[in-house]
Input
Amino acid sequence: VKCRRQVDPKIYASNISAWRSIFAKEGLRGVFFGWSPTLVGYSFQGAGKYGFYEVFKYYYGEKFFPNANKTIVYLGASASAEFLADIALCPFEAVKVRMQTTLPPYASSLREGWSKVTAKEGMSGLYKGLQPLWGRQIPYTMVKFATFETTVNQIYNFLGKPKESYGPLQQTGVSFLGGYIAGIGCAAISHPADVMVSKLNADRQREFYGYP
Output
């Protein structure tokens, strides 16, 4: 729904009408269409983002700049981690957007979509949306990690006890609240670049959502 409305704002009147239309015309498969590049791409991206974040946070905060402000460390570590993680994500995001934004579908599977893009445009076709992807994901991740870390610390300060004094369920609740607050900021700051990612990766030689 998101990708289609970003590429063609007139396609649906609202999110609800979009869900109804897709389900009526394409069934449940249409709702989940494009799941394979999403699963693979964001698995690689998630592993890289969280893994590299811990590495960069350690080196920036403990080795290189031990006296630096913690928020600056979180921002730097998250930006560095996302920069690398998006290199793994970008090809799968390109295939996903093309699959989801054209009818008849650009491809029916990740393998077919990957083959068609590389056959026509080479590997560069999979990476033409990398810069706007960085523009979307790096600020998103910086806000997410910095806001999450700061919010969680503030919650524990407000409660008046160290994190270790609370049980696993209570710590999880604090983490969920911190994640929710961070998510609001992430969505707001990343949306403009998200639109550009969808538009650049869409198959412009077809009619969006209609037959040629």
Confidence is low (pLDDT under 50) at residues 204-212.
